[in-house]
Specification:
Number of domains: 2
Low-confidence stretches: none
Number of strands: 0
Largest sheet: none
Order of helices and strands: HHHH
Radius of gyration: 23 Å
Helix content: 25-40%
Shape: flat
Strand content: under 5%
Mean pLDDT: 78
Length: 116
């Protein structure tokens, strides 16, 4: 709580959130299931109504080359998400861009050996 200022924006945000929740409930949306077992599987249901999902994007399962639902996308997707699990190797240049564990840039001056 902002003790030195107005709470109007927080009250407006709460009101908007409650109105959105009421509208979604009226439209048939809500929490998925009532047990941990059901919650574990809530995002694994393909092409079935999930009351917790407002927007979904189906992943490709075939060998077509249309947009994002294609065989290449399926080939890099994890097995647990219906892909073939091939993945994509990260280029060395991309790996070298990540900071060291202490946050410093990966340079020879900072002890980074880019050959290991």
């Amino acid at each position: 709580k902002n003790w030195d200022g107005s709470n109007e924006r927080w009250e407006a945000a709460l009101k908007a959130g409650l109105e959105a929740e009421a509208q979604l409930t009226a439209d048939g949306y809500g929490l998925y299931g009532s047990s941990a077992k059901q919650w574990e599987k809530m995002f694994l249901i393909d092409n079935a109504f999930c009351p917790e999902a407002i927007t979904v994007q189906l992943c490709g399962i075939g060998i077509t080359s249309q947009a994002i639902n294609n065989s290449w996308e399926k080939s890099i997707r994890l097995l647990s998400l219906g892909g073939t699990g091939g993945g994509v190797a990260a280029p060395k240049e991309m790996i070298d861009l990540f900071p060291l564990a202490d946050g410093r840039r990966p340079t020879a001056a900072n002890g980074y050996n880019d050959f290991t």
